[in-house]
Amino acid sequence: MDDAQLHDLQERTPELAALLAEGSAAAAAAAEPDALEQVRVRFLGRKSRLTEILRSISSLPAAERPVVGKLGNVVRVELERLVAAREDELRGASLAAALTAERLDITLPGVPLPRGHRHLISRTIREVEDIFLGMGYKVAEGPEIELDYYNFTALNTPDDHPARSVDDTFFIDQRTAIRRAAGDAGASPAGAAAVSAAGSPGGDAAASAPVVGDLLLRTQTSPVQVRTMESQEPPVYIICPGKVYRPDLDATHTPMFHQVEGLAVDRGITLADLKGTLHQFAREFFGADRAIRLRPHFFPFTEPSVELDVQCLLCGGTGCRSCKYSGWLEILGAGMVDPNLYGFVGYDSGELQGFAFGMGVERMAMLKHGVPDARALFDNDLRFLEQF
Ligand code: DAH
To answer: What is the pTM of this model?
Structure first.
């Protein structure tokens, strides 16, 4: 509303001017939305004086009608504007108040999530994998629940081999295990084979000769050798990391542990290739200046078989408690693949040669990092695990 209109208003309709002054003061004084609504009802509502004046225009003298009609509307529009403006103000103020009251300090640092890292065993497996991948090997896998055939028979393991007893192997079929234990006392391996072939699961268990159990938790990663050769043509260059199981528990043995198996089958492979490969591996894993030696040994699936020793990491070869004063630590088993194995997988034993090796991951990690007790690796005590 401009000055001329205001002047007009005061001169010609003092009551409307007064209503405007009163209404605008009341709107400005309203401190919260409810109070403002009351102001709106009082000055602009159906029963307000302004509405009354505008409704009764027809009863005014003809000369006053247009003046009161026009100025009345000006006052109504102006009051509506003032109320709306005050409403905006109040809303803004309450928003500002809420924002202050509920303010989040986003500059406060959050609760830090501790960052983990790979377990020493996983790390060691990766280290070993890296070394052999660098030499052109591929990683192979096999099942942890294994057939007796792959874990023992096809690895050239005789029926009466001690590894096939319940003391060394977790058999999955308990009945089979019990029969085996009962039979072990007297029956001959030939008898075992006969009962196995006849396959009489419901028979008189304890009385019969031992049977060859079908299912077991693999005791070594070596069955992956057989599975791999069965499923692919030579040449073969694989390593197989994985969990294996044996009924042992002491400072250096846990019932579940890890091995990495290796197998190379090709033409013209000799023991010198095995030695060179293992030497390269030992140098990369334990350090370039470590000496190694091969010692004759026996495994059913290699001929000849060897064990690999590395110069003691603690004393460097002079002799200490850790190496039982020999200066050497046993690292792994290995050998030239026994030609009998080729017969199980349909390879031509006249044309092919190969070597294999198998190492315990826990043992490697313990030696490298000076861990005295294998059980600590699986206790999940962060104070221990965080060191690596
Ligand atoms: N499987 C053997 C073990 O459990 C380790 C081993 C020895 C694996 C000689 C091999 C090998 O492949 O050639 O103790």
So the answer is: 0.66
